[in-house]
Request: fold
Amino acid sequence: MAKIVVIGGTGYTGSHLVREAAARGHDVVSVSRSEPQERVHGVQYEVGPAEQTAERVIPGADAVVATLSPRGDMAGRLVEVYSDLARLSAQTGARYLQIGGFSSLRPAPGAPRFAEGDVPEEYRQEALEGEAGRVMLVEDAPEDLDWVFVSPAGAYGAFAPGERTGAYRVGDEVALFDADGASTLSAADLAIALVDEIEKPAHHRQHIGIAY
Ligand SMILES: NC(=O)c1ccc[n+]([C@@H]2O[C@H](COP(=O)([O-])OP(=O)(O)OC[C@H]3O[C@@H](n4cnc5c(N)ncnc54)[C@H](OP(=O)(O)O)[C@@H]3O)[C@@H](O)[C@H]2O)c1
Reply:
């Protein structure tokens, strides 16, 4: 059993991860500023900004998963908060998994990342902040931090919740597409992939993409 701290554990990504990790018997702590609308049995809910609670809840964790989104009053603040979470995780010996965006992937080996091209206006700010979070890990993460940066599928998101199938593929920084050229993933299946990675660490200081 691992102690898993989910930063943003009441959000779209975080709540599925909290549910999956708890169902698999892990000791789960969820951090969010608002009370959860629904509580998963056995999960410890810490209510307060990660900037204040992280220092208290990260010590003793085996894994920290950062699932904040750069929206609302978090716009422009993601990298600063993630940089602190990375530092605290390194200090306490926790693995650190940071969820970013599809736009940090490349369409083909060696090609520019989607974030370097024409990202639609409605996603641009989020894509660029997610990408800045990746660059922070690659360039500035403490040397002893065991990090993984995760890009979900292009059509991943609360607008397309999908189902729990148990199927997923893990790629590198080149985007995965299915036989129809689509890039999709449900939050329940991303949660399975994340808990699998926590239970059997397969990637270290790496950027991975997860999709069907
Ligand atoms: N296709 C894609 O590439 C794609 C699509 C969707 C999402 N994503 C990425 O996945 C990640 C998660 O997105 P999401 O849609 O799951 O997010 P979300 O539903 O907006 O959830 C964010 C969570 O973080 C919490 N939170 C926000 N600021 C906080 C703070 N300062 N301290 C503590 N908790 C805080 C929120 O609760 P409170 O507001 O109550 O604090 C909520 O629980 C983001 O990086 C996003 O860019 C990628």
